[in-house]
């Protein structure tokens, strides 16, 4: 089983302890936050990390998902309310909301659909982590 460490963006860093080992602390700005920053990927291949730009507010953007997707983790790099759907044109009417600062984690997936549709109440960049077998 492989363990992968995820660093949210270039402003966030995982610090090392005195022995050079990663600690369970992420620095956001100047504020350390204790976290469990390890993602267990089991027998899955290397996770795919995508930065999806949402350049226009309240306008749907699509992202094609990887084949054989098992887990999906989504968060905004900024403080933005994000709406996601798996049906085109429904990210504004039938959607799941990811509130500012929250992370959406879906696992045990067996999707027929291969596209994620998203929009946001502000210009933002989404971090999408796809773990597949």
How does this structure look, described?
With 133 residues, the protein is mainly beta. The protein folds into two domains: 40 residues, no CATH class; 89 residues, Jelly Rolls (Sandwich). It is built from no helices and 13 strands. It has a four-stranded antiparallel sheet, with no helix packed on it. A four-stranded antiparallel sheet has the order 7-12-9-10, with no helix packed on it. Strand 2 and strand 3 form a beta hairpin. The chain is globular. It starts with a strand and ends with a strand.
Brief overview:
The chain is mainly beta and 133 residues long.
Looking at CATH, the homologous superfamily of the largest domain is: Jelly Rolls
* Average pLDDT figure: 74
Number of helices: 0
Q: Over the alpha carbons, how many angstroms does the gyration radius reach?
A: 16 Å
Regions with pLDDT < 50 over 5+ consecutive residues? 1-17, 20-41
Order of strands across the main sheet: 6-13-8-11
**Shape descriptor:** globular
Total count of strands: 13
> Biggest sheet, in brief?
4 strands, antiparallel
Could you name the CATH topology of the largest domain?
Jelly Rolls
CATH class call of the largest domain: Mainly Beta
Query: From the coordinates shown, what is the CATH architecture of the largest domain?
Result: Sandwich
N- and C-termini, Cα separation: 12 Å
């Amino acid at each position: 089983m492989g363990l992968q460490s995820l660093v949210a963006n270039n402003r966030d860093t995982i610090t090392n302890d005195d022995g050079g080992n990663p600690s369970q602390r992420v620095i956001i700005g100047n504020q350390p936050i204790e976290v469990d920053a390890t993602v267990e990927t089991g027998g899955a291949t290397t996770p795919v990390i995508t930065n999806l730009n949402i350049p226009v507010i309240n306008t749907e953007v699509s992202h094609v998902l990887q084949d054989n997707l098992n887990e999906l983790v989504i968060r905004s790099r900024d403080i933005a309310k994000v709406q996601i759907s798996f049906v085109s044109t429904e990210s504004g009417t039938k959607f799941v909301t990811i509130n500012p600062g929250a992370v959406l984690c879906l696992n045990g997936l067996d999707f027929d659909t291969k596209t994620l549709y998203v929009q946001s109440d502000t210009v933002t960049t989404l971090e999408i982590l796809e773990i597949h077998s």
